[in-house]
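Tutorial handout. Part one gives the primary structure; part two gives the three-dimensional structure as tokens.
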Amino acid sequence: MEFVDRIKEKEKLENAINSLPIGLTVLYGRRRVGKSTLLKKIIRKNDIYFLADRSDASHQREICAKIIAEKIEDFDKVKYSDWEVLLTSLNHRVTESFCLCLDEFPYLVEQSRELPSVLQKLLDEKILKYNLLICGSSQNMMYGLVFDKTSPLYGRTKSVVKLAPLKLPYIEEALHVKGADAIKEYAVWGGIPRYWELRENCKTFEDALWHNVFSIDGILYEEPNQLLQDDMKDIVKASTILSFIASGANRISEIASRSGEVATNLSRPISKLIELGLIEKEIPYGANEKNSKKTLYKISDQFLAFYYRFVVPNISFVNLDRRKPIEIDLQSGLVNFVSSFWEKTCRDAVTGNELFGVLFGKASRWWGSVKTVQGIRQIEVDVVSESIDGKTILVGECKWTNPEIASVLIKELKEKINLLPFCKDKNVIPVLFLKNKPKDLNSVQDIRILYPEDIMELMKK
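Part two.
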């Protein structure tokens, strides 16, 4: 797969490891987000790259010394008693500027708790003749090393880069897909480059699912557990919460009821999952996040959302290699799953963008009850966004199904708009976000419609 994006991160890291003064650079991010690949793109011929494993400390130092010996002759002829001796010895042998990259740094710290303090000492004494770059997937540990005031390395970094998942538009370039196909692919694989590579190695979308996910031998079959192990103390509770959310328990009371827990006992693991970017809060447009009683919880990581919606409920069938029940579940549920992502994508595309000559703020969903002549009515609107100047409001309906009848959709949307209290005294722009061109496209006029290709262009801005 082609190396895409990462332009800003690459430039920032290159500037850090190639410049003076000598110092410490930190790169971190979740598993499989492309940290090691990025490192290999930026290191120069004279730089030293060491990928740690979970072996004991003496073996780690032995392997590291052998890697260094490829650049510094006979460096591995000595047995180093600790990391301070190794790093200091390396300092004595320096003849030209270079960077020592320690990848999967948390594995080193697991076996040598003193290592951050060793680095602190070397940095504080200002005797280092080479730049240091540490990298890791444990977001808890890496974040703590940099931003925890009690950490030995707090305040001692020259540059910190958190590598986030790739944005939606880049999947077009990486997998050579466009429009609706790109939306569908990203809805399942999310923005994780390694997942894109696995998808690219299969002929079809379906082949990629059966080969990598719905197989006990699949590379991604155990992925959620491995991901949670990096940062969660109780992966069973975390996985249970994710399962409940994926099955439709989106309120804290519903999650607590299904798990048999008091709601207050769930606040810490839920907060941690939010911190890790695995779940997110959703509140209706106009509500206050701090005291909203309508807060919903959604899985924000697309692959985890797919896994807990389709793999976990079918785990027995996967273990028995029974494809038919899984196929039926996918056939009935995948459209709704992608549709939910399409709605979120449309909101993201509107947020902070200029559409129809108007600059809009944050876009949200809205749901609630309104009074009508017939009585109380529950309604939901997929996209609501107020313009930056407060004069205009965009209200949108999203559809991810077969060709719709636009005249019917816009009529229903305008009926909702007339009932929405926040639309009064505003210039309202109704918009349809459709997967396909409507059946009556040629007969409708003055209807604003955006398609996947339009949304992809907005996401590139």
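Part three, for discussion. Residues 177 and 300 are 23 Å apart (CA to CA). The mean pLDDT is 94.
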